[in-house]
Write a structure and sequence with these properties.
Length: 114
């Protein structure tokens, strides 16, 4: 693990990542897509390290900028980075595909007392 990776491990907010790596960002976009951008950044970092790319500050800056750019003008749900966006979604009978749990709407819940 290199110094830049250690530096990033202590960060907690998306804004801290962008400031640490000196990547410009639009706060409105970050408010909507922060989890997607950071997840995409993590995926890109892992792929780069697996490919043997040296993870230094310029590389991390480039990967974060690429992850951010992916969500500029796009609906983050379309990237399907999180399990909740896989499968049928609400009302289709399977919120989490393959989980064995189906979707139950509130009108299907019956409360019995006594």
């Amino acid at each position: 693990m290199c110094d830049v990776t250690l530096d990033l491990k202590g960060l907690s907010s998306a804004e801290e990542f962008f400031k640490e790596l000196d990547v410009p960002f639009d706060q409105a976009l970050l408010n909507v897509s922060r989890l997607h951008i950071l997840k995409e950044f993590n995926i890109r970092m892992t792929a780069a390290e697996t490919a043997g790319e040296r993870m230094n500050r310029p590389t991390a800056r480039r990967l974060l900028a690429e992850a951010y750019q992916k969500f500029t003008g796009a609906d983050p749900r379309e990237a399907k980075l999180f399990r909740v966006f896989h499968g049928g979604g609400c009302g289709s009978g399977g919120a989490l595909q393959g989980s064995g749990r189906g979707f139950v709407s509130l009108d299907q819940i019956e409360v019995r007392r006594g």
